[in-house]
Amino acid sequence: MTTFRPEPADQAPPPDSVHPRDSSSQAPTSVSRLNETIHGFVQRWGAVWVEGELTSWNVRGGAVYGRMKDAGADATLSFRLWSNVRARLPDDLEVGDRVIACVKADYYARGGDFTFTVSQMRRAGLGDQLERLERLRVQLRAEGLFDPARKKRLPFLPHCIGLITGERSDAEKDVHRGAELRWPQVRLRTVYAAVQGDRCVPETLAALASLDADPDVDVIIIARGGGDPQALLGFSDERLLRAVAAASTPVVSAIGHENDRPLLDDVADLRASTPTDAAKRVVPDVGEQRALVAQLRSRLATRLTTRVAHDIAALEQLRTRPVLRDPDQLLQPRAQDVWLLTARGRDTVDRAMDVQSRRVAELRATLRALSPGATLARGYAIAHLADGVILRDADQAPAGTPLTVTLARGSVRATARGEVAESGPEATGTKL
């Protein structure tokens, strides 16, 4: 017999099995369960934009650990910024700067540490400008300036490239080096312009107009080596954007800035990530083109050889057929048939001709028998009045009537002299 012993009523369940909201002094939850619950709750929070002043900025292993606070208040928060995000930020950020950051809360269940992870950060003061740029972006998109269908195709091999960049800048060197390495014969016409500040837009507009009016320039590159959003505002100016859209020459934007990129990248016919990338995308590589030509020539030779060999084999196969090997063999049996058909046709025609000849002779004899000429040949004559009426009765020709007498051969004129009476019952009279 098995004996069941009930557990004591005051025995508590394991702490890991108790949810924090169901915990009590008799049934407490565990630290790990509490931290995991907090972590799951925090993970459901979305990212938020926050503005504050940097009070700490420590770089450790490529990442940044810092703090920021409100001006004139004691509220602070800790943040962490990974190396890939830091690479996109201005290099001159430092303690004391007022910034705007996109942060997402994070809670480490193992250590119970609460912090914020930064995905974007920029200096404060750009809010109004960014809002204006966003409105301009919406307007230009509605007008179709961002439409891929209106973008011009770049030439395959530009003979002359127009370059707008800062004087003695790294961007100029990168474009020249990249283009000349890929195609040594390429020519570049460089027009210098300020790439930031108040002079940026008017000088860039003047350079663009100059290069666009040059018939030798096949494509224009506007290059700059990146920078913070404040420095790139000139490349989002509406005047410059509309001038680029109206240019007859294809324009390549090579500002070299990934985050908060200027509107020029959207309006230009092609966007390059860096000045070096612009050179690669505008100028073909001579080595690659030579290899491509060699490959195409090899493929063409192979196809021609295969086609010729195939046609030769087909021709040889046709030549081996009996009809082409001895053409007379096909004609000889047909020659006898043609001869027989010809002879049969000739006999048929001859018989038909004989029958018709006899028929014609019979008709000719009948016609001669019925012809007045035969009667005239026996000595008879036909008398006609002056109006051509044949004289059938002597009363038709009183004395003095002119007549025409038709004989077997020819005719004579006569005049009726009166009626001549003959004895006998069948006597007739003529007026000759």
TrEMBL record:
Coiled coil: none
Main localisation: cytoplasm
Database matches in InterPro entries: Exonuc_VII_L, Exonuc_VII_lsu_C, OB-fold_nuc-bd_dom
Start and end residues of each stretch annotated as Disordered: 1-32
Enzymatic reactions: Exonucleolytic cleavage in either 5'- to 3'- or 3'- to 5'-direction to yield nucleoside 5'-phosphates
Family designation: Belongs to the XseA family.
NCBIfam families reported for this sequence: xseA (TIGR00237)
Protein name per UniProt: Exodeoxyribonuclease 7 large subunit
Species of origin: Microbacterium kribbense
Species classification: Bacteria, Bacillati, Actinomycetota, Actinomycetes, Micrococcales
